[in-house]
Amino acid sequence: MNYTHLVKDIQQNILHYSTKNAIYYKNNSLKKWIGISWNSFGSQIQKVAKGLLSYGIKPQQNVAIFAQNMPEWIISDVAIMSIKAVTVPIYATNSTKETEYIINDAEISILFVGSQEEYDKSIEIIETSKFLKLIVVFDKSIVIEHAGNSIYFKDFMNLKFTVEIDNELQNRMNNGNLDDLASIIYTSGTTGEPKGVMLDHHNFAASLKAHDFELNVSEKEVSLSFLPLSHIYERSWVFFCLHKRMEVYFNENPKEIAEVLKEVKPTVMCTVPRIFEKIYGAIQDKKKEATPIKIKIMDWALKIGNKYNNQNLRLNKTPSAILKLNYKIADKLVLSKLRAIFGGNIKFMPCGGAPLSAKMVAYFHSFGLNIKCGYGLTETTATVSLFGNTNFEFNSAGKTIKGSQIKIGENNEILVKGPGVMKGYYKKPAETAEVFKEGWFCTGDAGKMDENGNLTITDRIKDLMKTSGGKYIAPQKLETALINDAFIEQIAVIGDQQKYVTALAVPSFENLKKYALEHKITFKNIEELINHNQIKELFEKRFEELQKEFSRFEKIKKFTLLPKEFSIEAGEITATLKLKRKVILKKYKALIDKMYND
User: Fold this and answer.
1) Beta-ladder partners of 36
2) I want to staple 261 with a disulfide (CB 3.0 to 4.6 A). Which of 179, 211, 289, 343 is the partner?
3) Angle CA 360–366–370, to nearest 5
4) Does an H or E element contain 493, and which?
């Protein structure tokens, strides 16, 4: 199979689509979106690449980016790879300690930063690191205190470059090789210190080729980028957008996503389950406030939408004339308004990072929102399975994408083989050897495949819990079922080596306060509210209802409501919002012990 080097691919687009806008950012003072043409994009990439060369960055040397999403992020990323160097993304939410570990492990001499907070953390590190020499600051409004080792991005691009630098850039761009290391992405480390996943240009090129085959898109698409570029999922998607010449809008503030969706009206965008869970909860809340006639119309419209989209189009069947007519009416009255929450133009939305319940997927598909669930890891350059256009199963993560292979191994472990699989873990040969068996990458995830090739993820093997009675519990399965409730924001299931299953639950404080107001429950603070008998009874009923379909031994017998969310800053969740179970068990030991001793 012929693969195209990402940098050369982008260079071709710069050449042929010079005046077309490639990427957009929001100018907050003007309150408008500003486009950057392919010409300008290419010019900035070249200037950053020359800046890196003038500071002596060698082929295959590591350069890091520590910032939230913005055009400068992707410009720097492509510039790094253009000189055959290696991009090391660092989550904007990382602590100083986590960032320092990556900088020292990857021997980073130049670091790009986005905000004042990231700059301040980096200055702390530069004082003690024997590797870090220069911080390049994206935002001019950031206060630079150490001029000797800090430079603004604009100034970095406007350095005086010699003819030798120009020649060296051309030489490196012309000699880019698919076997060159392209990126080292440090995994979140839910079970230990982060591991640097080594991905080469061949991995990225194979990912582009596979998505070319799987997804029907054109250069007319508009994509909204709001998930962290430091994660393989969003970054490989943005690479695909640039490869296909789609316009990419960078949303710097995830809290503004609802408003931005209406402004940008994307046709495609990467998402995570939490977005749908929150929107589902908001729709249900609004429904409660609606008049009986409106509720009746909405239920009828969704029922028609389910028949039309889920029972016909999904299964490649032609809807009857009467169903088509009913759907047209249902769409005008209700369904189009629900799609408008996402801007109204969505063609499809890849969804990954965690499981989304089948009920939820079917609900959104019923009003014509095409969620494409999939499965992948950093180690596989993201996607290895994905919903097709038809005949997909709502309770699955789709079918294996072209070029990859999946098989189920011992303990139902999902094993992957293909051109997207990593080279290995950086400086960790023992850990690399541990995850490869006879050429297959061992994902650590448990799953099963049906006779039609649909993959279903059942749990993380390392997360599986065994009760003292010898029964196995899959916590993610329980957590996925419970997190869909409007009153539950976060939940951590506990039960390993215990006589029964318990949970630490973080309520949706906004919905809980609303409930208290409606039921005339008075409280001085959140602690008092979550300990109120009526609130405890509410959650007991919710837990009972949500666990109906689970076996008796799997069900949560006791729970404790927490007054504060699990956070990245407290080290309780990873940058990709996965629970750090060991940290949670240790931190909340007294509360957990109480649930088993009472």
Assistant:
1) 23
2) 343
3) 80
4) strand 488-494
426 with 198: CB under 8 angstroms?
yes
Q: Distance between alpha carbon 531 and the CA centroid of its chain, in Å?
A: 34
Between the alpha carbon of residue 270 and those of residues 6, 118, 442, 476, the distances in Å are: 20, 25, 25, 22
CB atoms within 10 A of CB 463: 21
Q: Biggest alpha carbon distance in the chain? A: 76
Q: Where are the alpha helices (DSSP H) in 83-217?
A: 96-105, 116-126, 153-157, 163-174, 201-214
Task: Map out the domains of the chain as residue ranges.
Answer: 6-176+215-264, 273-345+348-416+428-461, 464-597
What is the distance between the alpha carbons of residues 566 and 573, in angstroms, rounded to a whole number?
A: 6
One pLDDT digit (tens) per residue for the chain, 598 residues: 678 899 999 999 999 999 999 999 999 888 899 999 999 999 999 999 999 999 999 999 999 999 999 999 999 999 999 999 999 999 998 888 889 999 999 999 999 999 999 999 999 999 899 999 999 999 999 999 777 899 999 999 999 999 999 999 999 999 999 999 999 999 876 556 789 999 999 999 999 999 999 999 999 999 999 999 999 999 999 999 999 999 999 998 878 888 999 999 999 999 988 889 889 888 988 898 899 999 999 999 999 999 999 999 999 999 999 999 999 999 999 999 999 999 999 999 999 877 788 999 999 999 999 999 999 999 999 999 999 999 999 999 999 999 999 999 998 999 999 999 999 999 999 999 999 999 999 999 999 999 999 999 988 777 778 777 777 788 888 888 888 788 999 999 998 888 899 999 999 999 999 999 999 999 999 999 999 999 999 999 999 988 988 888 889 999 999 999 998 888 898 877 788 888 999 999 999 999 998 7
SS3 annotation, 291-316: CHHHHHHHHHHHHHHHHHHHHHHCCC
Determine whether 451 is exposed, middle or buried from the number of CB atoms within 10 Å of its CB (0-12, 13-18, 19+): exposed
Residue 548 vs residues 32, 154, 360: alpha-carbon distances, Å: 49, 58, 17
Element (H, E) at 81: helix 71-82
Q: How far, CA to CA in Å, does 442 sit from each of 185, 407, 436, 439? A: 18, 10, 6, 9
The topology (CATH level 3) of 6-176+215-264 is Rossmann fold (3.40.50)
User: Residue 458: what are its φ and ψ, rounded to 5°?
Assistant: -100, -40
Rg of the chain, C-alpha, whole Å: 25
Domain 273-345+348-416+428-461 grouped into CATH 2.30.38.10: yes
Tell the burial category of 213 from Cβ atoms under 10 Å away from its Cβ (0-12, 13-18, 19+): exposed
Q: Residue 194, SS3?
A: coil
Global pTM value: 0.87
Domain at 464-597: CATH code = 3.30.300.30
